[in-house]
Write a structure and sequence with these properties.
212 residues, mainly beta, Immunoglobulin-like, 5-stranded mixed sheet, 1 helix
Length: 212
């Protein structure tokens, strides 16, 4: 269950981008199809997709939305580490947006502050769930009506260690094709969790949808 929150908006056009060192284990792979008798190959080397300890995938709940209706995204984390890991099941503080575009243009945004009934650190630590190796955890994420946009906005909240979250709403109110790029990274408290918490950065994903 999502923690109870309240949000206060203020104007801001700058989009904060959180940077983190990627935690991945690339594996060498080569396509040997077409290998010649002398051991050489007439085919190109196949570059592997980086293998992360936790893999992020995502999809929208529909390919097209009517303006004024909530836009849904489901982010799914898959544990491929070889052991059980603690993962958070909320979007706040964990889903880090790096780009939101409408066509070729970056969308407008509004800064905000989000209050949590028991504070942001407790909301994050209480959201941790133990996921077995090979298991998955889904995080639902949806837009809200934003008065300043006159339509839907997607909220991304950053955790800085304070009780209040620093949020950004991205304008999804206009018709057209949107692309949202993001990754997962948990920065919250870990000491109360009885196990290993994944604090690395996952791969980035992009979802595409249309507003009509």
């Amino acid at each position: 269950m999502k923690p109870r929150t309240s949000t206060y908006l203020f104007a801001a056009m700058a989009v904060a981008v959180l940077l983190a060192i990627p935690l991945s284990v690339p594996a060498a792979q080569q396509d040997t199809t077409g290998q010649q008798p002398d051991g050489t190959s007439d085919t190109a080397v196949a570059l592997p997709v980086p293998v992360t300890l936790v893999r992020l995938s995502a999809a929208t709940t529909a390919s097209s939305y009517t303006a004024g209706t909530s836009i849904g995204i489901v982010a799914t984390l898959t544990n491929r580490s070889g052991q059980a890991l603690g993962l958070s099941n909320i979007e706040d503080g964990n889903l880090v947006v790096t780009s939101v575009t409408l066509g070729d243009a970056v969308v407008a945004s509004l800064g905000s502050m989000t209050n949590y009934e028991d504070g942001f650190p407790l909301a994050l630590s209480g959201s941790l769930v133990s996921i077995a190796n090979g298991g998955s955890l889904s995080i639902p994420w949806s837009s809200d009506f934003v008065q300043d946009f006159g339509g839907e906005g997607l909220k991304a909240t950053a955790y800085t260690g304070a009780d209040i979250g620093t949020s950004t709403y991205y304008d999804l109110s206009q018709p057209g094709t949107y692309k949202v790029t993001f990754h997962y990274k948990y920065k919250g408290p870990t000491s109360s969790f009885p196990g290993t918490v994944f604090t690395g950065k996952t791969n980035s994903v992009t979802v595409t949808f249309t507003v009509v």
